Amino acid sequence: MRVGFGLPQIGPLGTRENLVKVAQRAEELGYDNLWTIERLLYPLKPQTPYPATADGSLPEPYKLSLDPLTALTYVAAHTKKIGLGTSVLDIPYYNPVVLARQLTAIDVLSEGRLRVGFGLGWSKDEFDAAGASLKRRGARASEFLKVLRAIWTSDPVEFQGTYFTIPKSIIQPKPVQKPHPPIYMAAFAPAALKRAAELSNGWNPVALPVAAMDAMSRQMREMARAAGRDPSRLEVVVRANVEFWDKPRPKEGFIYTGTAEQIQEDINATKALGVTEIFFDPVFSADGSSIDRYLRRMEQLRGMV
Question: What's the whole-model pTM score?
Answer without folding.
Answer: 0.97
